[in-house]
Amino acid sequence: MNVFKKIVYLEGFKKDFKKLKKKFLSLTKDLEVFINVQLKLYHKRNIDNGGIVRASGLGIKYPEIYKARKFACKSLKGTGSRSGIRIIYAFFPDVDKIEFIEIYYKGDKENEDRERIVRNYG
Predict the structure, then answer these.
(1) What is the pLDDT of residue 36?
(2) Model confidence over 81-116: pLDDT tens digits?
(3) Torsional sign, CA 71, 37, 101, 13
(4) Distance between CA atoms of residues 58 and 40, nearest Å
(5) Domains and CATH numbers, the chain
(6) Burial, 4: exposed, middle or buried (Cβ in 10 Å; 0-12, 13-18, 19+)?
(7) Cα 106 to Cα 104: distance, rounded to the nearest angstrom
(8) Beta strands in the chain (DSSP E)
């Protein structure tokens, strides 16, 4: 059973993911666990473990834009949920939809692409 009615991967996310997957082989499974556990707990059960924060300063009220700071990656042994991988996504609560916008590794890039987010939703 799907956790959300609809999950969409934007083109930019797909490109980011493909590039990171070469470096972190467990990424496909890790993303699946992230959706089925962390996103479900946060958006369906209202349980906040501090790993997901609302993105601020974008001037976007809808959809809700979030940054996941805790993302467990098995390819990064010993880091647990503090892997350094970040995911930016949009949540549409009224239609129960998630759109993945960006995924990046903090070792390669410090912050999210705010222009990409505003371009898609601003």
Answers:
(1) 92
(2) 556 899 999 999 999 999 999 999 988 888 889 999
(3) positive
(4) 24
(5) 6-121 (3.30.2310.20)
(6) middle
(7) 6
(8) 6-9, 52-54, 64-68, 85-92, 97-105
Please tell me the pTM assigned to this model.
0.91
Give the side-chain half-sphere CA count within 13 A for 24. 26
Sign of the torsion formed by the C-alpha atoms of 72, 87, 97 and 52: positive
* Token pair 């956790």: residue: 3
Which secondary-structure segment (H or E) carries 18?
A: helix 11-23
pLDDT computed for residue 76 by the predictor: 80
| Per-residue pLDDT at 2 exceeds 80 | no
The 10s digit of each residue's pLDDT in 31-62 is 999 999 999 999 999 998 888 999 988 889 89
Q: What are phi and psi of 95, to 5 degrees?
A: -115, 5
Angle, CA 10 vertex, CA 77 and CA 29 arms, to 5°:
30
